[in-house]
């Protein structure tokens, strides 16, 4: 099967760490060009300063992966769709729900494939957990998502600017798993966001959730961005039958009553591109906005408290 040429727009950490190497070993895609305002080149491939330049100089490329921060994403995706390109979007998709919903409508109107990726969903342990909860129900869920902003976003001030999400940038990964495994809709009941005195987005977040059932399960999440001793990406669950489940290492490991039942190396991005290939083959889009909607609700509901100033 011939490989499909794809260009990456936005050459930052996630593109270099994940997209470029995964495309490099894919049997469905080959990287044909990059777009970087800073002129960052990949090997000997053409590099363009703008998407418009790419579309003008290499019109034969009809697939793009947009890996920029969420700020410019809405205009970049619209530009790509208007140029007749199929689009894969990194997470978080956009700064606002209105932007995201506009892109969904615009992709449909153009008849092009639009794929909103939620990489943390693409693990066997997540899917097995979803199956268990669909059968046994849920009594409680506690999300604990802690990592170091200095490690994962070194010097990237955009994460602290309005629209940059703060610690909710990694936290939305947890919400993408949460919304995938829950057998019923969930809603934000209350939230608290601690924002550094010299920044605009939160460094620590606590969220309480509820279901439509007044006597439903106990559901909560904690995100923190100052964990310097490694990462804690864990979701602790009690099922309706009393079994204790623990999704660990970002959704790659599932333990049931303390016993490891699923443990696999992370192949999230490999599976994202496999899914993208399926969508392109069938001409269908995949644009679930539930994690973004839940996060937007948390920002709307949140009590804001001041935290210590943050400096790199």
TrEMBL record:
- The source's superkingdom equals Bacteria
Give residue ranges for domain Gfo/Idh/MocA-like oxidoreductase N-terminal.
Answer: 5-115
Q: Which GO terms describe its molecular function?
A: nucleotide binding
Q: Which Gene3D superfamilies match?
A: Dihydrodipicolinate Reductase, domain 2, NAD(P)-binding Rossmann-like Domain
* Protein name in the entry: Gfo/Idh/MocA family oxidoreductase
Species of origin: Arsenicitalea aurantiaca
């Amino acid at each position: 099967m011939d490989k499909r040429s794809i260009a990456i727009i936005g050459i930052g950490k996630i593109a270099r760490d994940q997209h470029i190497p995964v495309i490099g070993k894919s049997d469905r895609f080959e990287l044909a060009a990059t777009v970087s305002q800073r002129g960052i080149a990949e090997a000997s491939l053409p590099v363009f300063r703008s998407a418009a330049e790419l579309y003008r100089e290499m019109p034969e490329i009809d697939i793009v992966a947009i890996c920029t921060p969420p700020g410019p994403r809405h205009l970049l995706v619209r530009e790509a769709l208007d140029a007749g390109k199929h689009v894969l979007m990194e997470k978080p998709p956009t700064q606002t729900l209105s932007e995201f919903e506009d892109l969904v409508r615009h992709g449909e109107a153009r008849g092009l494939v639009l794929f909103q990726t939620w990489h943390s969903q693409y693990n066997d342990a997540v899917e097995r957990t979803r199956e268990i909860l669909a059968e046994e129900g849920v009594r409680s869920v506690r999300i604990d998502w802690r990592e170091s902003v200095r490690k994962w976003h070194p010097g990237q001030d955009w994460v602290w600017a309005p629209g940059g999400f703060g610690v909710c940038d990694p936290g939305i990964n947890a919400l993408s798993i949460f919304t995938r495994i829950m057998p019923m809709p969930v809603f934000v009941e209350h939230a608290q966001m601690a924002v550094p005195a010299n920044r605009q987005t939160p460094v620590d977040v606590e969220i309480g959730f509820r279901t439509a059932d007044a006597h439903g399960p106990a559901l909560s999440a904690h995100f923190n961005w100052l964990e310097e001793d490694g990462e804690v990406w864990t979701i602790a669950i009690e099922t309706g039958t009393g079994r204790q489940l623990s999704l660990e290492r970002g959704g790659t490991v599932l333990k049931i009553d303390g016993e490891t039942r699923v443990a696999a190396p992370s192949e999230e991005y490999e599976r994202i591109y496999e899914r993208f290939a399926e969508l392109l083959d069938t001409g269908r889009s995949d644009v679930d906005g539930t994690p973004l909607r839940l996060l937007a609700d948390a920002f709307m509901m949140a009590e804001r408290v001041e935290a210590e100033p943050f400096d790199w």
